[in-house]
Amino acid sequence: MNDILLLGKLTLIITTRCNLKCALCCEYVPQNKPFPDMTLDEEQKILEAVFNVVDRVHTLHLSGGGEPFLHKDLPALIDAAFEYESRFERFMLFTNSTIPVSDDLLAALGRHKDKTLVHASDYGIHPERTAEIYKILNANGINTRVLKYYGEAQDFDGWVDFGDYKSRGRTKAELNTVFSNCAVTRDMHGNWRTRDGTLHWCSRSQRGLELGLLPMFNDDFVDLLDKNTTCEHKREQIRRIMGNQHLQACDWCSGDQGTGDHSKRYPAAVQL
Q1: pLDDT of residue 1 exceeding 70
Q2: Which of 59, 90, 238, 266 has a C-alpha 20 to 30 A away from that of 81?
């Protein structure tokens, strides 16, 4: 049993398009051209590769650097994810609560509602649309968690600024501190993410590499689609990352994720 490889959370980044332009977007979506949306075929290949290497996932998450409700094939992507239902405990979607729920999406969520959680951020933008979305989800028995991100008493006290992608020149001890204090490590034990089959511990590593803003830190990720590497070696790579004291990408981050310093918290979703 000790050899079971479990990921706490795995995010498939199905889109990097968004209808909002948040100044402190941790994915830097407003500042960059979106990649093509993940296709159903790509999702199936990635999921097959994941579950050839990983035994179980606690939370399987379809999201993105953008808004997943914009993806025209989201219902089909949800159904395809549930082909692996026996391998995960919970299915999650994120939404910024501004895109209406289509009939097809509602039907797909209904088919799988026993394991599904819709994680809905309420930014106080288009409140009438947001209220209608929550009403429809609740009326159809879809488990929805709403996080308030406007006005007073914002969830998590607001957002943090991950800063520019630049090396801070931190020492090994400083990198270890940044990594251990990060909410991804401390609270989530890894926010594993992939858009193209390269599996990363966190969004800073994954997004920085695909945008060409980080050097190629080969020890910070695992290429699940590499046909020249065995499944066992990929398992070893994942376990090594899990046991790391820091990532190289930690030097290219503000290090404020998970901070308790309220002076480093900012109002969420301020629009450019």
Answers
A1: no
A2: 238
**Total number of domains constituting the chain:** 1
Domain assignment present for residue 81? The answer is yes
Cα 254 from Cα 260, distance rounded (Å): 14
Residue 87 lies in a domain: yes
Which CATH number goes with the domain that contains 139? 3.20.20.70
Tokens 């070893």 locate to 236
Question: CA-CA distance, 167 to 249, in Å (whole number)?
Answer: 9
The reply to whether 1 falls in a domain is no
CA 145 → CA 11, 92, 250, distances in Å?
18, 10, 30
Quick one: which of 17, 103, 3 has its CA closest to 53?
3
Q: Domain residues for 241?
A: 6-264
How far is 68 from 14, CA to CA, in rounded Å? 7
The residues facing 64 across adjacent strands are: 15
* Number of C-beta neighbours around residue 22 at 10 A: 21
**pTM beyond 0.90:** yes
State mean pLDDT over 226-244: 97
In 3D space, the residue among 80, 77, 88 whose CA is nearest the CA of residue 7 turns out to be: 88
Instruction: Give the bridge partners for 146, in sequence order.
Output: 120
Q: Has residue 269 been placed in a domain? A: no
CA atoms of 14 and 54, how far apart (whole Å):
20
